[in-house]
């Protein structure tokens, strides 16, 4: 094998509860994540050294998580060769959809195959955890419960999620993730009970009742991202039920029961308001991939 082309999937948080602050400055979370078919594309080809390129100019630097993942895996495995890596972005950047983390996890898995290293998901997980809190989840994909900083991943049966409309406002705030977690107050912390109740429902048949969806950043995000309240209200006015932020925002999502409903809603967001939206479906790992 000398070449690989892989899809890196985005995610939404069906729940995201923040349990409290840790001594290391991070936060403990309990969350159920779901991959969806909004994707980046990663092309890998064997080479003598590592080289990385991206179709988004500002993501081409040495701080890109894909290059960090490749360098870390090469060093840890003692691999002598390299790879030419090209990233084509389809997932909005810094939007709460996990694009960078998914790219890093896909790079780890892809290079593990390309280089013939033979490492298991369990062996790749410590490397993924060094790269970012969401990266271990993307080694699995599908439906999963994560705890700790996100490094403890428990795959679940497929959630009964058919279609999701994702609205990504063109809003950015400096050091977004740190700012959002830093803005949480003590009364924003919960004990993870909603997440565990939803986990039980999914294990019992995949059911995802709308009232079980939750994100600790929902209220904070409305004030932190300028203009997000208007996006939220217009989204709801089109019939979106149970709108929540993805991750720490600013993307918003709503589950919809049928494709035609989601298509109409997404088209209205784009053509009436000129906003970036996507209709996506849930993605589960290939059978046997993560058993």
Structure description:
The protein is an alpha+beta fold and 291 residues long. Helix content is 33%, strand content 28%. It is built from nine helices and eleven strands. Strands 1, 2, 3, 4, 5, 6 and 8 form a seven-stranded mixed beta sheet that branches. A four-stranded antiparallel beta sheet has the order 9-10-7-11, covered by helices on one side.
Write the layout of secondary structure elements.
Blueprint: E1 3-21, E2 27-47, E3 51-54, H1 65-77, E4 82-88, H2 99-114, H3 121-131, H4 135-140, E5 143-148, E6 152-155, E7 163-168, H5 176-182, H6 193-203, E8 214-215, H7 218-224, H8 228-237, E9 244-245, E10 252-256, H9 259-273, E11 276-281
Parallel strand pairs: 1-8, 3-4
Antiparallel strand pairs: 1-2, 2-4, 2-5, 5-6, 7-10, 7-11, 9-10
What does this entry show, briefly?
With about 290 residues, the chain is α+β, with helices and mostly antiparallel strands.
- What series of H and E elements makes up the topology? EEEHEHHHEEEHHEHHEEHE
Q: Radius of gyration, Cα only, in angstroms?
A: 19 Å
The gross shape turns out to be globular
Unreliable runs = none
**Percentage of residues in strands:** 25-35%
Helix content: 25-40%
Largest sheet: 7 strands, mixed
Mean pLDDT: 94
Distance between the termini: 24 Å
Tally of helical runs: 9
Secondary-structure-derived class:
alpha+beta
- Strand runs, count: 11
């Amino acid at each position: 094998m000398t070449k690989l082309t892989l899809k890196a999937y985005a995610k939404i948080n069906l729940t995201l509860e923040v349990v409290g602050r840790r001594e290391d400055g991070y936060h403990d979370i309990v969350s159920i994540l779901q991959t969806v078919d909004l994707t980046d594309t990663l092309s890998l080809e064997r080479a003598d050294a590592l080289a990385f390129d991206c179709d988004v100019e500002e993501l081409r630097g040495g701080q890109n998580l894909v290059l960090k993942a490749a360098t870390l895996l090469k060093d840890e495995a003692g691999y002598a060769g390299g790879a030419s890596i090209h990233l084509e972005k389809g997932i909005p950047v810094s939007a709460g959809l996990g694009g960078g983390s998914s790219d890093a996890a896909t790079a780890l898995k892809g290079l593990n195959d390309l280089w013939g290293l033979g490492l298991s998901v369990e062996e790749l997980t410590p490397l993924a955890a060094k790269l970012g809190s969401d990266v271990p989840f993307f080694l699995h994909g599908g439906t999963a419960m994560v705890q700790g900083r996100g490094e403890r991943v428990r795959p679940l049966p497929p959630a009964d999620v058919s279609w999701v409309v994702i609205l990504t406002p063109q809003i950015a705030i400096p050091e977004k993730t740190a700012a959002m977690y830093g803005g949480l107050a003590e009364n924003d912390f919960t004990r993870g009970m909603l997440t565990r109740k939803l986990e039980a429902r999914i294990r019992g048949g995949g059911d995802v009742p709308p009232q079980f969806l939750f994100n600790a950043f929902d209220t904070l995000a409305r004030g932190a991202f300028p203009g997000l309240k208007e996006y939220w209200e217009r989204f709801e006015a089109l019939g979106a039920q149970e709108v929540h932020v993805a991750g720490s925002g600013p993307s918003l999502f709503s589950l919809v029961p049928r494709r035609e409903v989601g298509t109409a809603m997404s088209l209205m967001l784009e053509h009436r308001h000129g906003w970036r939206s996507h209709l996506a479906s849930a993605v589960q790992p290939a059978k046997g991939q993560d058993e």
